[in-house]
């Protein structure tokens, strides 16, 4: 009898054990419910966040051609072109939710934005995704090979998006490039979502070079301009400074959100990259971005990067990117000889804050603008800020 009566310490122990059991059970049960806690299963999600004419297509290819990456370019194009009306601000949640679905390889979201009987070719710029030119989406390009956009376009179109979804599920990394985010706050739900292990790479470029590049694409940018400016049909004339102002503001907003007192869930998840550093030192910069995203560099990729950034090289195949090491600096500087100084001054006026934050020196005169040995890109140590990448992905973060 006496032996059956628990002593007070034993009682405490029993209560504790019961507590532990409850915690374990709830934890186990919680894991069974994906809506409560869906682990990422080691999957990493990368958002290449940039703006128009800032080298983001090149950066996109750097990820797209990696054998562990499923890449999609500008899926939010569908949102902007379908829903157009309200302007960028009103569309940001729709854009965010579309990107979330893509990260989760749920392509049913495109039903809202594509024709009823859709083909994979209804996805914007689909053939720029190496993964959509490789098995299981298409037999054309072996997974470790580099895809050819025009070949892929010709031979990899299929009915439905099932193939794309299956392909997406079969990769460890899903990478999306977007120019249609203007803040990080709308991405907070993704950053907090335990099912998504998000890393954000923010690519920026000297606004003066951006303007020069935008001038070669005035028509193509008209519709987007109107949405950026929240205007139904903005006139082309003089919109460009106002658009640049919005773009510059958004860079400041994004960078400051990530670097000044960022919320905990942003730590280790943001990296800023300047286009100028990327073209001058592509291998190091790309290696560091890969490592931030948890991707391995290999010999084959190194050779390919060398080839596309140096123009000629092994073989005589003409590559899609015309950045050569010889002219990388020229490309970065071209605006200095082609943009009139009064234009440069206006860009500097509207983008002053962003330029000083991101390390671009202003020119004060026509003479300074023309003096090409005067370096206008501050060395990185003066501006550079990145969080150290997190060690690795744990099955369930948060
Ligand atoms: C969709 O893909 C199928 C299969 O490749 C092709 O035969 C068809 O022409 C495509 N349809 C459209 C509208 O592109
Ligand atoms: C892609 O393939 C086409 C032939 O379809 C060829 O003309 C072109 O040079 C190839 N591009 C590259 C970058 O290899």
UniProtKB/TrEMBL annotation:
Its EC number is 2.8.2.-. Pfam families: Sulfotransfer_1 (PF00685). It is found in: Golgi apparatus membrane. The chain crosses the membrane at residues 12-30. This is Sulfotransferase. The keyword Protein transport does not apply. GO terms for cellular component: Golgi membrane.
